[in-house]
Amino acid sequence: MPETITTYEPDNSLKKGYISLFREIFNEVKNNKWLTYQLFKRDFIAVYKQSFIGILWVLIVPLVSVGTFIVLNQSGIFNIGEIDVPYPIYALLGMAFWQLFATGVVACSNSLVSAGAMLTKINFSKKSLVIASTGRSIVTFLIQFVFVCILFVCYWMHRV
Prior knowledge:
By secondary structure, this protein is mostly helical.
């Protein structure tokens, strides 16, 4: 009887192609949207419910950061040069995009680290955990973006 040789290969999703890979990711996210929403809601409420001023932190942190940059710019400590928009709008929009990126990366990694026991014991979509943690950063960004739009309107009305 001939000897049978069994060869194991890792599941390399790139052999299927990028379109197939993204289709699988999209289907997994679509099938687990309830879990993603529940994880997002849990994290979002936990962060802002435990503080005295609650969701106002979404506005206070960027306003203090932008205020600091405005004071530093006006005092001459640093000079950014000529820009076509008012500096507060420039600073707030820059801070909003940076915070979206920075808090998104930190939140994703923290969610995976803090859910270590859950990841090993329960079979669920890990993408849901990452997307839910990124959701808080996106909501914060959208609130800050609304504030930037209000500043645009205020500066436009002041200019006219």
